[in-house]
Amino acid sequence: MNGYLRGIIRQKIVDAQAAPLPEFTFRDTRVPVVKGKAIAVIGMRRSGKTTLLKQIISERLKQGVPREGVLYFSFEDERLAGMKSSDLDIVIEEFYRLHPQLRVHQRVVLFFDEIQVVPDWELFIRRLLDTENAEIFISGSSARLLSREVATSMRGRALEAVVYPFSFREYLRHEKVEPSKPAEEWTTSDRSTIESELRNYLAFGGFPEATGIKGRDRQELLRAYIDVVLLRDVVERYAVTNPAALRWMVRQLLGNAAGSFSINRFHADLKSQGFSVAKDTLHTYLGYLEDSFLLQTLFLATDSERRRMVNPRKIYPVDTGFIPLFDRSGKENTGHALETAVFLELSRRGYAIGYVHTASGHEVDFLARDLTKGDELIQVCTDLTQSTTREREVRALLDAAPEFRNARLRLITLEPPPGVEFPPEIAITLASEWLLLD
């Protein structure tokens, strides 16, 4: 058996090193570079994790690492079923048997995709970090590799690179219309193209495989993504005993994107529908959905932990393309989609985010905090043409400003604002420009 497994592993290594790298759209995902740490590439299914690994391989080759010094090994292979942690050494042995000169003279780059199917894989990775001159990347589906598991299993020996569906810039790059100049140098034609593509992006989302697919086919593809996450990453993984309540929760959450969500109110709704499920179970289910990267929740920005926990959370799907699948209003979702896009972009940029509720009852969409860039209060609005809308958005920002004195004030809008004066302390920014900031 060992000889059979060794032969398969050797052949996979040879084939992977001989295979040309596929064409891909360059991703802007931040990949930490810290010596002595493995990098765990995580994110929702179909968001592009394997593509990011291939991108990193391409970058290392351009930096001068020889092709034989790069190992990409996927454990998602039925021939490797039943592989044990003790068998993982065979991968390294065969790699160095093929290229013995590398072990002493060359720092190598090792990519282990879906290594989580092998029990006790983390012991193997930690030992490689201690004994080999290697840069190590691991990746896997969210069913087997979660943030908290990386932290627990690797005991501080791994850092995360979180892969989202395409950002707006990546979407434009994929469509071959990424602007090469800053916004102030855009021509009228440039601006028209970018703003038209932004509306498409908000409506259809940024999953790489779904880009360019229209109508019913796209909707069915995105629904299939959600179904796989629910079945494999939640129901099967955690042995969920009330999948009907879980699906009801998903419909409620994704159908109310950028809205508030209260477990207490949802529990009462379920009870009225005849579901018997405990509140603690619903809290657990919500955590599962976040772990699977299907959605993220946003807490109230406050120093009081009690206020943070008792106030409703806001819900944002991982992609704006999910919003129309569950919306029941029959209206356009542009406002919710734009707010979701801004939230996801803030997350990509590494901000700590909360929402603000003032003592006067006004709400600001985001308080975004960064140690180097400072704090910013951000309000998102599709159209500022109506005076009542302008006054509401401006009033909320000005009302929150005294509580967060060091925060800059920004109003992000989809449409160019009318020729009226705004308070000078509020920066008015077009979404098409803000989403493309570096």
TrEMBL record:
It comes from the Bacteria. SMART domains: AAA. It holds the Pfam family DUF4143. Residues 35-155 form the AAA+ ATPase domain. This is ATPase. It comes from Chlorobium ferrooxidans DSM 13031.
